[in-house]
Design goal:
By secondary structure, the protein is of the alpha/beta class. The chain has one domain: Flavodoxin domain (Rossmann fold, 3-Layer(aba) Sandwich), CATH 3.40.50. Helix content is 37%, strand content 12%. The mean pLDDT is 91.
Length: 154
């Protein structure tokens, strides 16, 4: 099966491990792109964690809508949407973040919505926190809740 892994970039190491495990089971896997070239004022290099960079540099309101950061964010989002279009299913890698177990952030919620719209199978790795106000929307998209058991993936 062709699977795209979605989740917070904070969970990137977990996504890489999940990718390896699923590939060993014969699946084709895509994970989020972390190869956009960062501009010099963002430290250069290849990997950009937008949330972390914004948090460490004054917060989202310090980046006006015309800031080039948003061009990079748009590119990363569109790239991942293309991966969702390519796949048969997505799996959401959701772990603890900000003291919330089973965290699913705004960007991942959008990705789940794209998969739902495209009629892709949606798997969620871990139980979803009831602290998320949009848990009902996620349930409405009828995901398969894996409760950590990737062997439930068809």
């Amino acid at each position: 099966m062709k699977i795209t892994i979605c989740g917070s970039i904070t969970f990137y190491q977990e996504m890489e491990q999940l990718k390896e495990t699923l590939e060993a089971k014969g699946h084709e896997i895509f994970i989020p792109l972390l190869s956009n070239e960062a501009p010099a004022e963002m430290g250069g290099g290849k990997k950009i964690n937008f949330g972390k960079y914004i948090e460490e540099n004054g917060g989202v309101d310090d980046f006006p809508p015309n800031n080039e950061l948003w061009d990079l964010k748009e590119k990363a989002m569109r790239d991942h949407f293309d991966k969702i279009e390519w796949c048969d299913a997505i799996i959401v890698s959701n772990h603890e973040k900000k003291g919330i177990t089973g965290y699913i952030g705004g960007n991942t919620l959008i990705e789940i919505g794209v998969a739902f719209f495209l009629k892709k199978q949606i798997y969620i790795l871990n139980p979803i926190s009831s602290e998320l106000s949009y848990k009902q929307e996620i349930y409405g998209m009828k995901p398969v809740l894996l409760n950590g058991n990737i062997n439930l993936i068809n």
